[in-house]
Every structure is written in structure tokens, then in C-alpha cells.
Amino acid sequence: MSLRSGFATFAGRSSYWFLHTFLHGGSSLPGKITLKLDPNILKSLGANYDVIVITGTNGKTLTTALTVSVLGQKYPSILTNPTGSNMEQGIVTTFLNAKRPKTGRPIAVLEVDEANVIKVTKYIQPKAFVFTNIFRDQMDRYGEIYTTYQKILDGVALAPNATIIANGDSPIFNSKELPNPIQYYGFDDQPDGDFKAKPNTDGVLCPVCEHILHYHSLTYSNQGKYFCPNCGFHRPELTYRLTKLGEQTPTSSTFDLDGHSYTIGVGGTYNIYNALAAYAVGRFLEVSPDQISQAFTANERVFGRQEVIDVDGKQVTIILVKNPVGLDQVLHMIGTDTHQFSLVGLLNANYADGIDTSWIWDGDFEQLADLDIPTVITGGERYKDITFRLKVAGIPDSRHIVEPDLEKVVEQIKQVPTERVYVLATYTAMLQMRKILAAKGYIKEGLGV
Amino acid sequence: MTYELNVAHLYGDLMNTYGDVGNILALNYYAKQMDVHLNVKVVSLEEDFHADDYDLAFFGGGQDFEQTIVSQDIQTKKAELTKFIESGGPLLAICGGFQLLGHYYIGADGEKLPGIGALDHYTLAQDHNRFIGNIVIKNQETGETYHGFENHQGRTFLGTDERPLGNVVSGKGNNGEDGTEGAIYKNVYCSYFHGPILTRNGDIAKHLLVAALKRKFPTADFSQQEALPIPATF
């Protein structure tokens, strides 16, 4: 470590200690201070680690947590960045904050924002990249899926020897020739048919000949065993396969990976993809199936298990929704609940939510009409938008309560005829809701999950 | 339902960003209230569009890549689309769809890409800037006010036989210069509005549906449909 890096590291670590001790904070400021003193700091901080970079639109956080847990079964020292600290400063802070390992070469599993991959690879040669998926996200901020993938590839170009472990069901990850070794994971549990994705799906053009892709089997969105009937482009050979899909509930999923059975304590097909990604990294680094199974079942905490809040006897689950594919998956997941439930939709359009609310129309709320939901409540700063969305989706006025004020939404929740209540909320609406619930003593202050 | 209308969702599988499909959902919502059943069909790459098969059409916006592909394919549908438009067929075109009905637009890499020239506008690009934000316009003829969200790099300039959908009250509009937003030509409505446009501006959905009904059933009385109240949704 150079003298400059040494000093910068010292300054950053000291600031972390100060912030952590006196202000109970300090997730990105120490990184900021250190970066200011030595912009190349990641080079010396990361040099001694085997780094795994996890990136993509959805599932980064859970995939990272699961990967840490899986690798923890075999490797003694694993560093990771806390939720939300996936930009350069947060990553520097993560390294600053690390204890020195006693033995062996430590591993760092880093969740990295798509546009920040290059800021990491400029200084560090990762051992592997994990690509979870690229979906249409808040487009006023992120832009189009091809632009997002190119940003990731700009970063990958600086690390041509790193193995890419990619979601093989997502056509975009097979669209560019790369010098890197690549391994794919995906779903391989269905007999071959011939399907097209739903009309309102992003990324269905063949990257070779620009015809519409077909699928032998589809999981959701544009993911599955794709092929192009025009030019023969098709899903690559999978290294890691989901071979059987078992029971799915809102709080658990059972499935086989390469013939071994696994259970995770969280619902949603999207979370099976996250588990599959973590499994792939585990197998890549020679963690055994038994150890992986242990990691999946032993440590429920890593799933960020949906927190159930007791509001005067109502079992309330708050779920963050931020883009159409995520929303569809959440709707599908709550639809697997065998108990009757009420639904609350809270929409804001602040910067962190995405200022364009159009995306709610890409979400398939129409599937709610098939569920027997006795009460639906809509609220939040943009309650008019979400109210009309659900009206159009076929929720009858007789079951639909419109309540912009979140304080009053809490009171309405207490009156619903079901014990279970799912609250789907955009980011700032979720924070506001949690703040109100904390003030009323239903939860402790803080973000929780 | 007493009436049926056939709706072409032009390139619905490629031109569908920013909740565009919400326009189809909103059309359906208001159509039901008008006693009208809609048969919606996606008409995409290498599929024929026959003007006589459809009573209404919707053409949404897309990502740059998809729009480039559609710009090539739509040339094969140019004659029939032009026939549909000239014969008074109601059509709603948003963002990329709006651009492709005109003469040309400038793509992401600065290349000039053809539209079908059925309408007399053209679209230029702007460097490293997009018009992003909430927008309000007013249609001078009907007095109706429309709400939307714009997010576009293109700057569109209308031809002489097009009227704007409205004049900008707040926001940028077609090009940030002349105070116009969108276009109206015969029964074609164009706009950069997302939101989507018909979910916030049910009056436009009503205009489109009534125009389609009158064109398909010239002797029927649609005064009830025309009187359908459209409560504010935004």
C-alpha cells in the first residue's frame, strides 16, 4: 500500500469509527473521504480479495446475501457490502470497514449498481461477475435495457479474465460476444413447447436477426428457453439447471437444482432465480450441494424474510414495488397465499420512486380480478393514479377504499375483513408508512428489511 | 355488448415502453361503458395490416433499438396505413409512434430514419438532453385540458395541415420552441404524452371511440355514447 493509500485508508477508517461510534451511521461518508484523499484507493484495498461482483436490475441484494451465506459454508472470511451501498463510495467503505482475515485469501461478494461496475473494475480484477437480469426499470432515471447492459459491459471489458455467471434465461446476456469465460444458469424443468412472450414484454427481439423470439418454455417476462425460429439463435447450454419446480407459497419455495432438492424460506419465482444464482456461484467455487442446502435452510435471516407487522391483530406485510416485472412477480407471489387477504396499494412519485407513474400500467393488476380480495385500499401522494389503475383492472367500487392519507390508511387496515394484509408500496411511500407504524408503536424505528 | 370494434395494436410487442398498453386498457374501460366490445390484435413485424380489417388503431412508443427495426418494417404497411388514415380511421400514436407517422426522425446515433410520411411532420434530435417531466396542454377548439408526462429526446415540427393536440400550458411539448404539443390530422391523434395519455384524459378515448363507431355504423345514433360523462382521474 502506498503512503497516500495508507493515509487515505487511515482517514476513512477513523471517520467510520467516529461516525459509527458517535452518530450511529457511516455507510458512505468514510468512503467519500478516502476517495477524496486517494482516488485509486480501491486498488490497494481490494488487491488481497477474490472479488465476486453481483449486478443487474432486480435481485442484487438477495442474491448477494444468499451468495455470502452459501460461500460461508466453505470459506472462513467473506466480506460484503450492506444493502443499498452499491455505489463506489459504499464499496470503498465496505473494504475500509473489513477486519483483517487471520488465514487464507478472503472473498468479497459485492452488490454493484449497473453503472458502477466500471468504477470497481478500473481498480480490481474480479474473479467472477454475476448478471441477475435486466428489466425495464424507472426509465426516467435508468434508460433502456440495452443501455444498461452496455454500461455493465463497459465495466466487464476491463476484466476479460473474470468468469461471467449469467442468467441464461435472459436473451440479452447472450447478445454480445465476450472474451470472458461464461457459465449460464436457468430453468430446465418443462417439456419443449412453442410460445411467445406476452405482448407487453421488453427485450423480445433476436439480437442476431431482429425477429421476434419464441420460447420452448417461459418463466416470466422475457425469460426462458428462448429460440429464434428465423435464424436459429437459442438459449445457450446451461451449466446450472433448475430441474424441478415444487411447491410455492408466499413464504417458501421448494425446487431441484441439478437433481438435488432445496427449500428456501421466501416466496416468488424471482427469488428462486436469486437462489439459483447463489447456487451457481457456490458450485463455481466448489461448495457442495449439501453445504448449499444447509446455507439455504439454516439461515432464514439472509432472505430478508418479509417482515410481518402485527397491527391490532392484522398481519401486515409491506412489500416494496418499483418496476413492472417486480410488481408482476409480487402479485403472482401473494396470489399463492391460501388464506384470504386484503390489498393496499400506495403510490408516490418522488425521485426515489420514479417520477413517471406510467409504469403501473405495465404491471398486470388484471390478475387481481381472479383472486377473491374482499377489500382493496389505494393511497399515497399519487393515489389518483393507482386508484384509476385498479378501477380499470376490474376492482369494483364496492370493495375499493380510496384513502390518500397514510395515517388513515392504517386505521382502514384495522377494519378490513381479513387477518392478512399485503401492502404494496413504492420506496418513499414505504418509508412514510413505516414511520407512521413506528410512531404508533407497531414497529421499531428504522428500515427493517 | 351491442357494438364491436376491431382494434389494431401496431407493434404492440415492440413499441410498448412507459405503460403504453394502458391506452388499450383505458380504451377497453370506456368502450364497455359505451356498450362496445373491442377485439384487440397486435400487428407486428412481417404481419400485414389491412386498412379495411380495423376500425381503430393504436401505435405506442418504443426503445431506440426496437424503433429502428419498426422504422424498416413499417414501410411495408405504409400504403394501407395511409389509406386507413386518409379514409378517416381513428388512430392514436404516442412518442415513437407519433414520430414514425411523419416523414423521418433522427435516431440515437444521429442517423436519419424514415417514417411513413402519412402525416406532414418531421422529428429532429437534441444533443444530450431530453424533455422530461409533467406537462399540461390545452386544446383551443374543445377547451379541454390534458395532463401527461413527457420523456423524449426528439423535437417534432408539425406540417401545415396538422393542428396541435394542444398548446403547452406547462412543460416542453413537441419541440420546446413553438408551444405546440402533439398533432391532430383527420381522426389521428398524436402526442408525446405518457401517463398513459388515455388514462388521464378520458375525453380523448371518447373522441376516438365515437369516431370509430360513427365511421363503422354511419346510420346508428351515438348521442348516448357522446354524452358519456368522463370523471377526472388525475
List the helices and strands and how they pair.
The complex is a heterodimer of chains A (449) and B (234).
Chain A: H1 3-23, H2 29-37, H3 41-46, E1 50-55, H4 60-72, E2 78-80, H5 88-96, E3 107-111, H6 117-121, E4 128-131, H7 139-142, H8 145-156, E5 163-167, E6 182-187, E7 214-218, E8 224-227, E9 240-249, E10 252-257, E11 260-264, H9 269-284, H10 289-298, E12 308-311, E13 314-320, H11 324-334, E14 341-346, E15 376-379, H12 383-392, E16 400-402, H13 406-415, E17 420-425, H14 427-439
Parallel strand pairs in A: 1-3, 1-4, 2-3, 4-5, 5-6, 6-9, 13-17, 14-15, 14-17, 15-16
Antiparallel strand pairs in A: 7-8, 9-10, 10-11, 12-13
Chain B: E1 3-10, H1 21-33, E2 36-43, E3 56-59, H2 64-73, H3 78-86, E4 91-94, H4 96-101, E5 104-106, E6 112-114, E7 122-124, E8 131-138, E9 145-152, E10 155-157, E11 166-170, E12 180-181, E13 183-185, E14 188-191, H5 197-200, H6 202-216, H7 223-226
Parallel strand pairs in B: 1-2, 1-3, 3-4, 4-14
Antiparallel strand pairs in B: 5-6, 7-10, 8-9, 8-11, 11-12, 13-14
Helix pairs in contact in B: 1-6
What does it look like?
The complex is a heterodimer of chains A (449) and B (234). Chain A is an alpha/beta fold. Chain A has two domains: 46-298, UDP-N-acetylmuramoyl-L-alanine:D-glutamate ligase (3-Layer(aba) Sandwich), CATH 3.40.1190; 305-439, Protein-Tyrosine Phosphatase, Chain A (Alpha-Beta Complex), CATH 3.90.190. In chain A, 33% of the residues lie in helices and 20% in strands. Chain A contains 14 helices and 17 strands. In chain A, the strands form three sheets. Chain A has a nine-stranded mixed β-sheet, with helices on both faces. In chain A, strands 12-13-17-14-15-16 form a six-stranded mixed β-sheet, with helices on both faces. In chain A, helix 5 links the parallel strand 2 (78-80) and strand 3 (107-111). In chain A, helix 2 crosses helix 5, helix 4 packs across helix 9 and helix 4 packs across helix 10. The longest helix of chain A has 21 residues, at 3-23. Chain A is globular. The mean pLDDT of chain A is 89. By secondary structure, chain B is of the alpha/beta class. Chain B has one domain (3-227): Rossmann fold. Chain B is built from seven helices and 14 strands. In chain B, the strands form four sheets. Chain B has a six-stranded mixed β-sheet. In chain B, strands 9-8-11-12 form a four-stranded antiparallel β-sheet, with no helix packed on it. In chain B, helix 1 (21-33) crosses helix 6. The two termini of chain B are 28 Å apart. The model of chain B has no long low-confidence stretch (mean pLDDT 96). Classes of the chains: A alpha/beta (449), B alpha/beta (234). The A-B interface holds A 136, 139-140, 144-146, 196-197, 199-202, 204-205, 210-212, 355-362, 366, 384-385, 387-389, 391-393 and B 9, 12-14, 16-22, 25-26, 28-29, 42, 44-46, 63-66, 69, 132-134, 149, 151, 194-196, 199, 233-234.
